[in-house]
Design a protein that fits this description.
Blueprint: E1 6-11, H1 17-26, E2 32-36, H2 48-62, E3 67-72, H3 75-88, E4 93-94, H4 97-107, E5 112-117, H5 119-124, H6 126-134, E6 139-144, H7 146-153, H8 160-176, E7 180-183, H9 192-199, E8 204-207, H10 208-222, E9 236-239, H11 243-254, E10 260-262
Parallel strand pairs: 1-2, 1-3, 2-9, 3-4, 5-6, 5-7, 7-8, 9-10
The structure holds D-glutamic acid.
Length: 268
């Protein structure tokens, strides 16, 4: 039966694990198949065309894995062409940008929203476009934070460098008076502490992970795709790079030992 199949998530690396963590919390009965394109990350600085090529390959692979729904758990990949992926996939598919914007609109009081992300995401204008469509009167202040991904991937989250870089990127957003900040990159919730202390207690931080899973749940419910059983779940994690470092990071983040396998997808 279709609802017995797994939910697939894809990301350029470990960032999408923040969405997996939310899946475990909000949809604990669902089986997960994850693909992290660790050999080709970061996606942020690459052209949209190249990123789309990578994502097409991943979608093809995921569709051989008995999945019923695909979450593009990466802002850079979503910004590079969500509509293209929807056309390509034979399954319902959701990105992370619209859920994040929707949540921010529910939170903001001042109508001044900030969004931070990779260069690819910010330069694509995808957040601006979605916001213009949903709430034309709201002001959006955006900032690319390319070093944040490197800080996460190199395990420097609790370092003075992280604080210095955060002040450099975020100081002006705080001074502009944004009251809501969208963490428009799935890696950024891992930096939530330093982002919070830089922005101050009055600013609400929006994790697209939380909102995306909330929306995934709503769509699956509507389509009758939610899995009912409480049996043992075998999640599968695939990476294009080495499995061992990914496994280590995942164990720390998810507080769980996962099965991770390397898969070579070929040239994108
Ligand atoms: N996880 C990606 C995102 O959400 C960022 C990492 C990358 O640049 O590949 O944008």
């Amino acid at each position: 039966m279709e609802n017995q199949k797994a939910v697939a998530l894809l990301d350029s690396g470990v960032g999408g694990l923040t969405v997996v963590k939310e899946m475990f919390r909000q949809l604990p009965r669902e089986k997960i198949v994850y693909f992290g394109d660790t050999a080709r990350m970061p996606y942020g600085p690459r052209s949209h065309e190249v990123v789309r090529g990578f994502v097409y390959q991943i979608i093809d692979f995921l569709q051989t894995q008995e999945v019923k729904f695909i979450v593009v758990a990466c802002n850079s990949a979503t910004a590079a062409g969500l509509d293209y992926y929807k056309e390509k996939a034979d399954l319902p598919l959701l990105g992370v940008i619209e859920p994040g914007v929707r949540a921010a609109l529910q939170e903001t009081r001042s109508g001044k929203i900030g969004v931070i992300g990779t260069s690819g995401t910010i330069e694509s204008g995808a957040y601006q476009e979605v916001l213009r469509r949903m709430a034309p009167g709201v002001e959006l202040f955006s900032q690319a934070c390319p070093l944040f991904v490197l800080i996460v991937e190199n395990d420097l989250v609790h370092s003075p460098e992280a604080e210095r870089v955060a002040e450099e990127y975020l100081g002006w957003l705080r001074d502009e008076g944004v009251d809501t900040l969208i963490m428009g990159c799935t890696h950024y919730p891992l930096l939530e502490d330093v982002i919070r202390s830089t922005m101050g207690p009055g600013v609400r931080l929006i994790s697209s992970a939380r909102e995306t899973v909330r929306e995934t749940r709503a769509i699956m419910e509507e389509k009758g795709l939610l899995r009912g059983q409480e049996d043992h779940l075998y999640h599968r994690f695939y990476v294009s790079g080495r499995a061992a470092p990914f496994k280590e990071m995942a164990a720390r983040l998810l507080h769980d030992n996962i099965r991770a396998y390397q898969v070579i997808l070929g040239e994108g």
